[in-house]
Automatic annotation (TrEMBL):
Pfam families: DEAD (PF00270), Helicase_C (PF00271), RecQ_Zn_bind (PF16124). The lineage of its organism: Bacteria, Bacillati, Bacillota, Bacilli, Bacillales. It comes from Viridibacillus soli. Residues 219-374 form the Helicase C-terminal domain. This is ATP-dependent DNA helicase RecQ. The keyword ATP-binding applies.
Length: 481
């Protein structure tokens, strides 16, 4: 076996591994399938990056978001790696063809689950002889596969079941049920598992119960004006991202809105400004965060009940990556969970959609006409098509009912954690099948918490109104020009 410490120093400049990294890497080099659950900030990417320098064949990384791919590609380039590419929609058709024709010249190839359904990509990948296939943020298989992005359930369809490369599934958070889904849908064979505690002792959890929804925006403004960021305000509404941002800007706080309805270039620009410290606060939907590696985020504020405890953990885990104290605040008004339930079940196909699908196929028409007739959303049609091709119609009906009930139940679990008046940290660990050994000071709302101990309070806002010029902003995005 290669001297891993020597390779670590040579390629990444580190002298020692973080907990779990070496064990995972050794199992990969032994060509075993691996499930690795490492908390945010524990260096999950190194678990496939270092093996890439042991093998003489390319490593394929399946990633959920374009921004995450681009971030990982840029990170490798900063370490001096040139043989890296992201095979995604940012490439022109001619560029994609060139990449597929020369896969062997790359050490790291990033792509998405949706790209894997392309027949040309599948054919090229079968010939590529990958040393390793990595599924990054593997919890998305369970979180998104059944009712949002069904291509997550088909990740291994293109692989030769006998001669396939080992698979590494990486995530920061996953319950026992999610790990079971990961192993089943990736067809893993007796995988090595490394599961680190999800507890982050430097994160502190607060719940603020308000009387009315209209009290949330004034509370957020008053709090941000009193305390230091950087921070992220998570909301469910694109409109609210703009409302919160406008209020912060008008009070001298450098802030920007971020949501999936914005152009990709604008989202990338705002992300880079936040990373560079030109923005102190981001007001965002859950479209923001995955792949954003900013070590000094001090606060995460939720103005709503997240759809699952796992989602909540993913989002609050974006704070305090530098190991310093960070605060998570969840604002709650009674019945907030009803809005979350409505949002997460809105796109799940219903009984009438199954009947319409059957009517179209019975007339030998393409059921995709349902989209043209505005009978179903794009997400709903993707989900419906996936299950209609795999189950009998009655089974599809039951599957969709089960999905809806499961999602509603997960919201109720999140509400219980917020309102149970029990230690939030202890509840979080219990959700992931783990136990709390010792509570840190300023643990959570129910154990006792003081903002002044965790956060620095502002003394003035004299410099916060400054916004860099366009030239200065572009110099951050394009440093070599």
């Amino acid at each position: 076996m290669a001297n891993l410490e020597q390779l670590l120093e040579q390629h990444f400049g580190y002298s020692t591994f973080r907990p779990g990294q070496k064990e995972v890497i050794e199992a990969i080099i032994e060509k075993r399938d691996v499930v690795a659950l490492l908390p945010t900030g524990m260096g999950k990417s190194l678990c496939y990056q270092l093996p890439g320098y042991v093998f003489n064949r390319p490593v394929l990384i399946i990633s959920p978001l374009l921004s995450l791919m681009q971030d990982q590609v840029e990170q490798l380039k900063r370490f001096g790696e040139k043989r890296v590419i992201a095979l995604n929609s940012f490439l022109q058709m001619s560029e994609k063809r060139n990449v597929l024709q020369h896969l062997g010249q790359y050490r790291f190839i990033f792509t998405s689950p949706e790209m894997l359904k392309n027949s040309q990509v599948q054919a090229a990948f079968r010939q590529a002889q990958f040393a390793l296939v990595v599924v990054d943020e593997a919890h998305c298989i369970s979180q998104w596969g059944f009712d949002f992005r069904p291509d997550y359930l088909k990740i291994t369809d293109w692989m030769d079941a006998v001669n396939r490369p080992p698979i590494l599934a990486l995530s920061a958070t996953a319950t026992e049920a999610v790990v079971k889904d990961i192993k089943a849908y990736l067809h893993m064979s007796q995988p090595f598992e490394y599961i680190h505690s999800v507890d982050r002792v430097n994160l502190h959890y607060d719940v603020v119960q308000l009387e009315k929804p209209i009290e949330k925006a004034p509370w957020i403004l008053a709090h941000v004006l009193k305390t230091h960021g950087p921070g992220i305000v998570y909301t469910q509404s694109r409109k609210k991202t703009a409302i919160y941002t406008e209020r912060l800007l008008s009070n001298g706080i450098r802030a920007a809105a971020y949501h999936a309805g914005m152009e990709a270039e604008d989202r990338q620009f705002i992300q880079q400004q936040f990373l560079a410290g030109q923005l102190e606060w981001i007001c965002a939907t859950n479209a923001f965060g995955m792949g954003v590696h900013k070590d000094n985020v001090r606060q995460i504020i939720h103005d709503h009940i997240p759809s699952t405890v796992a989602n909540y953990m993913q989002e609050v885990g974006r704070a305090g990556r530098d190991g310093q104290d960070a605060l998570s605040i969840l604002l709650y008004v009674q019945k907030d969970e009803d809005m979350t339930k409505f949002i997460i079940t809105e796109d799940i196909p219903q009984e009438r959609h199954v009947e319409q699908y059957l009517e179209y196929t019975g007339r030998e028409e393409n059921p995709a006409v349902m989209l043209d007739m505005h009978q179903i959303s794009e997400t709903g049609f993707r989900v419906l098509s996936y299950w209609m091709q795999r189950l009998a119609p009655q089974e599809v009906q039951q599957k969709l009912v089960d999905i809806r009930l499961s999602k509603v139940s997960q919201v109720d679990e999140m509400k219980t954690m917020v309102t149970a008046q029990k230690c939030i940290r202890e509840q979080l660990l219990h959700y992931f099948g783990q136990s709390l050994n010792e509570k840190p000071n300023q643990c959570c709302h129910y154990c006792g918490i003081e903002y002044g101990v965790i956060l620095k309070e502002r003394e003035h806002l004299e410099t916060l109104g400054y916004m860099p010029s366009w030239g200065e902003r572009l110099s951050v995005l394009l440093p070599n020009i």
